[in-house]
Every structure is written in C-alpha cells, then in structure tokens.
C-alpha cells in the first residue's frame, strides 16, 4: 500500500515583499548624489591674432610675388529691438535689407561666392560687425553662410572674426 502525502499549498505574503521593495526604493532615492555638473569646458582654441587692414577696399601688395597681406571682408549686421536682422552690409554696400530668411541668406551666399571665387581676391577672412542686441540664433545663420565659402584655391574659409557695433548715439 502506498501512502500519499499531500503537501499544503505555499502562500506568499505579498504585503511583506512590497514593503521591502518600497524600503529599498526609498533608500536608493534618498542616498543618490549625482556628480556636480561641470561649469567649465576645457577648449583648445587658436591663439588670438590681431585683425589687420580691416578696410576691404584697400588691397596692399606685400611685395612677395603678387600676394596680398591679410585683408578682411567686412559684414555689418544691424538688428531691430527684438534682436532680428534688419540688414546686412557687405563692405561699403548692402547685401540685403530685411530679415535673415532663406531668400536673403541665399542672396548673401551668392554675393560671397562671387567675391571669394575671384582668383586674386584680396580677402582671406571675414570680419562680422554685429549690433549689440542681435540674437545669437540670427548671428549663426550668417556665420553658416560665411563658413560655407571657399577660397580660390578650393580651401574653406576658416578665418571669421567678430566685433560689436557701437550703441547708437555712443561716442567712439
């Protein structure tokens, strides 16, 4: 004769397990200390180089076989009270009047390609003169157009400098 032994069913106490899970969760939340966010970025920037001869209409022959000294093509960006572009001047003339929309930026790109595409162009850098109240987003649109330009030898334009326009009515 065989005996059958009947085992009782095991019941798990879920309340105790939930208590333990919440205690562990609370412990980890209260003891978590994230690392402080770094406030400074270590950047390797090129050394500052003074801009020479910022007058675009004067090309100075350096006497080294027809090469020119450093000349800057001056872009002047004016802004309204909201920080939007109102006009961009190119040297002594105007590149466009109005906002920095796709059409005006395309016109600026076309003008710059024409200037930098000339074989013996005296320009090898762009000096952007910026209104003090211009928004950064608007400035970046102009910088993007300038950074796409190629010099006559096929290399990209890498020298872009900035200066701030004086406040209207301020003495220089």
Summarize the structure.
It contains three helices and five strands.
Main traits of this protein?
single chain, 172 residues, alpha/beta, five-stranded mixed sheet, 5 strands, elongated
**Strand line-up in the sheet with most strands:** 3-2-1-4-5
The share of residues in extended strands comes to 15-25%
* Average pLDDT: 77
Q: Overall 3D geometry?
A: elongated
Unreliable stretches covering 5 or more consecutive residues: 56-69
Number of strands: 5
Main sheet?
5 strands, mixed
Calculate Rg over CA atoms: 32 Å
Based on helices, strands and strand pairing, what is the structural class?
alpha/beta
List the helices and strands and how they pair.
Layout: H1 14-31, E1 72-79, E2 85-90, E3 93-97, H2 102-116, E4 125-130, H3 136-147, E5 160-164
Parallel strand pairs: 1-4, 4-5
Antiparallel strand pairs: 1-2, 2-3
Helix pairs in contact: 2-3
Explain what this protein looks like in three dimensions.
- This protein is 26% helix and 17% strand.
- By secondary structure, it is an alpha/beta fold.
- The chain has a 5-stranded mixed beta sheet with strand order 3-2-1-4-5, covered by helices on one side.
- Helix 3 (136-147) links the parallel strand 4 (125-130) and strand 5.
- Helix 2 (102-116) runs parallel beside helix 3 (136-147).
- The longest helix has 18 residues, at 14-31.
- Mean pLDDT is 77; it is low at 56-69.
């Amino acid at each position: 004769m065989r005996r059958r032994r009947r085992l009782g069913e095991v019941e798990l106490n879920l309340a105790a397990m939930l208590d333990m899970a919440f205690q562990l969760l609370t412990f980890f939340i209260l003891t978590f200390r994230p690392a402080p966010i770094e406030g400074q970025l270590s950047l390797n920037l090129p050394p500052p180089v003074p801009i020479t001869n910022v007058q675009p209409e004067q090309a100075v022959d350096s006497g080294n076989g027809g090469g020119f000294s450093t000349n800057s093509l001056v872009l002047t960006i004016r802004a309204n009270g909201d920080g939007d572009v109102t006009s961009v001047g190119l040297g002594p003339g105007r590149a466009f009047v109005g906002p920095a929309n796709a059409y005006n930026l395309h016109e600026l790109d076309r003008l710059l390609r024409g200037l930098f595409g000339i074989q013996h162009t005296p320009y090898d850098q762009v000096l952007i003169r910026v209104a003090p109240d211009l928004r950064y987003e608007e400035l970046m649109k102009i910088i993007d157009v300038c950074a796409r330009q190629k010099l006559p030898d096929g290399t990209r334009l890498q020298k872009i400098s900035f200066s701030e326009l004086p406040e209207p009515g301020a003495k220089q």
